[in-house]
Write a structure and sequence with these properties.
Blueprint: H1 4-12, E1 16-19, H2 30-33, H3 40-43, H4 48-55, E2 59-67, H5 68-77, E3 85-88, E4 90-92, E5 98-101, H6 112-124, E6 129-133, H7 136-139, E7 147-151, H8 158-163, E8 166-168, H9 172-179
Parallel strand pairs: 1-2, 1-6, 2-3, 6-7, 7-8
Antiparallel strand pairs: 4-5
Helix pairs in contact: 4-9
Length: 180
């Protein structure tokens, strides 16, 4: 079992950090935000952590079971390229009617976040990937992620709080780790 101090060292030396989006990077669930997408900028204002990691040349990825159209908007506010976004794509017919979602996306299926992290390791040869999120699907992505940090700053999910080896309720704690 990895000690808390070892988890902190792994976080500080990570090649890449993957964030869940709904109730982690943004305060709401994406479906709630769809109607008020202009409000997303306010919800990500506390994400100084992303900027600090980027200054350290850590690759940042957003992995979500939510909708890519929302996640890409959040990514642009955080200066994360759209190529670093993994989320479900909505499909529409030529007349504009909703046609479902793209079932070929890894995030559209069970275990999808872990599949994305495995793909990132294979593609970019990352040695250490950290996954940060509020839900069970985020926790299930470790392994292949090397570290999972449970986040309860917006919503506390008891299963995650009880089972995460490292659980935080404010990104200030992670910012503090980077300062040491």
């Amino acid at each position: 079992m990895v000690s808390h101090s070892e988890l902190r060292k792994l976080f500080c030396s990570a090649d890449a950090v993957c964030f869940d989006v709904d109730s982690t990077v943004i305060r709401e669930e994406g479906i709630d935000e769809l109607a008020k997408i202009c409000g997303v900028a306010d919800a990500v204002s506390e994400m100084e952590l992303v900027s600090r990691l980027q200054e350290r040349n850590v690759q940042i990825f957003l992995i979500s079971g939510g909708f890519r159209s929302i996640v890409e908007h959040v990514a642009s506010k955080l200066n994360i390229p759209s190529t670093n976004v993994f989320a479900n794509r909505l499909k529409f017919y030529f007349n504009g009617d909703y046609a479902g979602f793209d079932e070929t996306q890894p995030t559209a299926e069970s275990g999808g976040k872990g599949k994305v992290i495995k793909l990132l390791k294979e593609t970019f040869h990352f040695k250490k990937i950290v996954m940060i999120g509020d839900g069970a699907t985020d926790m299930e992505a470790c392994p292949p992620a090397d570290v999972f940090i449970g986040f309860g700053g917006n919503v506390i999910r008891q299963q995650v709080k009880d089972n995460a080896k490292w659980y935080i309720t404010d990104f200030v704690e992670l910012l503090g780790e980077l300062e040491q």
